[in-house]
């Protein structure tokens, strides 16, 4: 018989709807029941594509004996971290504080009925292992401790909460960080052999690479380009189907953890487009690789992540079945030479084995290899081979899809699709971006608020986080610039006006989440898998401020950006978005302020418009619109002829009608 989770708008929660555990969803009802029954809470946090979440669910939560033990002593609450990022952030901070910095998913926390943690961990096995108790042992110990030493647990929980609340306020700096020192710190961490930063595991560092691309200085540009090339050639990139996996388990980008997340690919699409823009024409091979990688990401998005309603789903699982029905991580993506020859025939199969570095012993497991792109193969032949391999791969058992639509991640996808559409002259990409944006309007905008998530067109109850409001507002404004439709700009303004009120901190920055009554209100100024909430709102305030001529938004962005200075100073590699903003501001102080490029045209893909998108310095906005279009303030006033009108700050340049002459107004320092 299904439990309470059967009606959830989360695939992760639905995966647990058949269990005998008397699960509750996060919310006031569950908290009230815990207070009424005076039982401690067992909080279990994960997400649908999490490998170890699946393992613990099967080993423990599917076990009737474990379920009975949980139901007797605890109020079990299951949380999808993608639905409730604030809950995840607060209790992950507790988990890391109580476990010497270690954390992860599944997250397992035991709380007082008031929601204060007294014991935390991650995965627990069904049987004890050296240094790790079984989950049954943990349940029995926590149940006994609550009955016999409740006062001690409550006192411990109060101490933990006191520590976390005192530690959650970030240090503030009165002076801007030394940008040269920040860039030097990042360069010191660069892996000169494999690209990227640090050792294993290696995550795609999209926001840091964007920062390195801002100025185009030789050393920073080289690091960004080498990393983008190494990732595009590595096993972390799905060479057959496009898109990137979550991270590489080794330093050389060879074997990934095989989840494929929307947010990674949304960010990387934009970064590869900007990397292509920054790469010189004479480096034709690298430009072609970056362009091909961007096109592959979009192909994967359109084929595997886009819903018929227009929105983009969250993730693909790492696990799938082999031909015998056994579940393995990564089996969907692995090949050997024999499999390649079976699909492609002898000549192309051996050619592909060489091009993709498929070795006799395998680069993965059981003689199988993860495909990597080696050398400089004929791209036309490569594309033909990949198309045939993709068609064959579709006959395998597919990884499961997390169907949740997350507002922030769709916002990031919309912005990157729009930018790519205008740079590469791809109207179908812009159509996809508009479709996703319309889905957010139709489903996620409810009574003036932006909701965080939805499933199959049914919106969740949680109000969006700061990252949702920021990413979606920036996406809507970017669409306004590309389509010339001011309705998108009005929506972006409304979202930011709401966000400033909802997330504003007394120091001028922003909290990450609304005040939902948790014992602590999360606020992180470093990037995690996506830009921090503060950085997302700062970026949106700047774009909307320029397009809507809202000086109040630009000033609010300046104030909020100052709160990120400490993060850039102490951890520049983990504050790429804030560093990008600082580098753009530094360029503005040196005479290269972000441009507002207005192209009056009847054609959204006019060559003047596309050239503006390709050439404009980082932080600029581009508007292509009919001269008679309404809703863009003074930007179109007196501008009736087809031309590009470029202003930077209070300086406007003569109109340009030939795209070959655009570089002068866009890049002249004044």
TrEMBL record:
Q: Which residues form a coiled coil?
A: none
One GO term under biological process is: carbohydrate metabolic process
User: Which domain of life, per UniProt?
Assistant: Bacteria
- Sequence ranges assigned to domain Spermatogenesis-associated protein 20-like TRX in this UniProt record: 3-164
Q: Which Pfam families does UniProt cross-reference here?
A: Thioredox_DsbH
Stretches that traverse the bilayer: none
Q: What is this protein called?
A: Thioredoxin domain-containing protein
């Amino acid at each position: 018989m299904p439990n309470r989770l059967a009606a959830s708008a989360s695939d992760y929660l639905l995966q647990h709807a058949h269990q005998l555990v008397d699960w509750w969803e996060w919310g006031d009802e569950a908290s009230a029941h815990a207070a009424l029954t005076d039982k401690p809470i067992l909080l279990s946090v994960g997400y649908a594509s999490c490998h170890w979440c699946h393992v613990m669910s099967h080993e423990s939560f599917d076990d009737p004996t474990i379920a009975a033990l949980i139901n007797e002593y605890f109020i079990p609450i299951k949380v999808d971290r993608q639905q409730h990022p604030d809950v995840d952030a607060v209790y992950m901070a507790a988990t890391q504080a109580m476990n010497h910095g270690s954390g992860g998913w599944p997250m397992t926390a035991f709380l007082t009925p008031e929601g204060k943690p007294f014991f935390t961990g991650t995965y627990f096995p069904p049987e004890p292992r050296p240094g790790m108790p079984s989950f049954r042992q943990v349940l029995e110990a926590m149940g006994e401790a609550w009955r016999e030493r409740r006062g001690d647990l409550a006192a411990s929980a109060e101490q933990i909460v006191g520590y976390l609340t005192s530690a959650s306020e970030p240090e503030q700096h009165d002076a801007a960080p030394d940008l040269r020192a920040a860039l030097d710190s990042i360069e010191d961490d660069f892996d000169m052999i494999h690209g990227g930063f640090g050792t294993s595991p290696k995550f795609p560092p999209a926001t840091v690479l964007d920062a390195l691309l801002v100025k185009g200085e030789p050393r920073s540009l080289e690091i960004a380009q080498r990393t983008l090339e190494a990732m595009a050639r590595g096993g972390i990139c799905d060479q057959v189907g496009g898109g990137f996996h979550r991270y590489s388990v080794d330093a050389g980008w060879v074997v990934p953890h095989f989840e494929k997340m929307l947010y990674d690919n949304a960010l990387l699409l934009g970064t590869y487009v900007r990397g292509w823009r920054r790469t010189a024409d004479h480096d034709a091979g690298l430009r072609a690789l970056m362009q091909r990688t961007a096109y592959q990401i979009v192909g994967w998005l359109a084929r595997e992540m886009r819903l018929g309603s227009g929105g983009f789903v969250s993730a693909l699982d790492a696990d799938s079945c082999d031909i015998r029905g056994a579940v393995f991580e990564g089996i969907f993506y692995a090949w050997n030479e024999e499999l390649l020859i079976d699909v492609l025939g002898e000549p192309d199969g051996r050619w592909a084995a060489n091009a993709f570095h498929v070795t006799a012993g395998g680069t993965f497991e059981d003689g199988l290899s993860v495909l990597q792109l080696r050398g400089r193969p004929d791209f036309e032949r490569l594309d033909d081979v990949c198309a045939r391999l993709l068609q064959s791969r579709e006959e395998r058992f597919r990884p499961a899809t997390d169907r949740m639509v997350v507002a922030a991640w769709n916002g990031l996808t919309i912005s990157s699709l729009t930018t790519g559409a205008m740079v590469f002259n791809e109207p179908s990409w812009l159509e996809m971006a508009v479709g996703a944006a319309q889905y957010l309007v139709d489903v996620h905008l409810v009574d003036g608020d932006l909701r965080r998530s939805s499933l199959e067109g049914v919106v969740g109850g949680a109000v969006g986080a700061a990252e949702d409001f920021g990413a979606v507002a920036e996406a809507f404004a970017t669409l306004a610039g590309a389509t010339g439709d001011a309705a998108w700009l009005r929506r972006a303004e409304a979202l930011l006006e709401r966000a400033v009120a909802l997330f504003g901190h007394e120091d001028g920055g922003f909290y990450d989440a609304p005040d939902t009554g948790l014992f602590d209100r999360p606020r992180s100024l470093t990037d995690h898998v996506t830009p921090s909430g503060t950085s997302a709102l700062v970026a949106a305030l700047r774009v909307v401020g320029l397009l809507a001529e809202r000086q109040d938004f630009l000033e609010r962005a300046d104030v909020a950006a100052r709160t990120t200075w400490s993060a850039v100073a102490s951890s520049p590699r983990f504050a790429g978005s804030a560093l990008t903003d600082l580098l753009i501001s530094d360029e503005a102080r040196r005479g290269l302020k972000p441009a507002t490029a207005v192209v009056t045209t009847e054609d959204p893909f006019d060559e003047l418009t596309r050239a503006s998108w390709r050439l404009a310095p980082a932080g600029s906005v581009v508007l292509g619109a009919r001269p008679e279009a309404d809703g863009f303030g003074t930007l179109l006033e007196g501008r009736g002829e087809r031309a590009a009108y470029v202003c930077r700050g209070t300086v406007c340049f003569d109109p340009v009608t030939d795209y070959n002459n655009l570089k002068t107004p866009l890049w002249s320092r004044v």
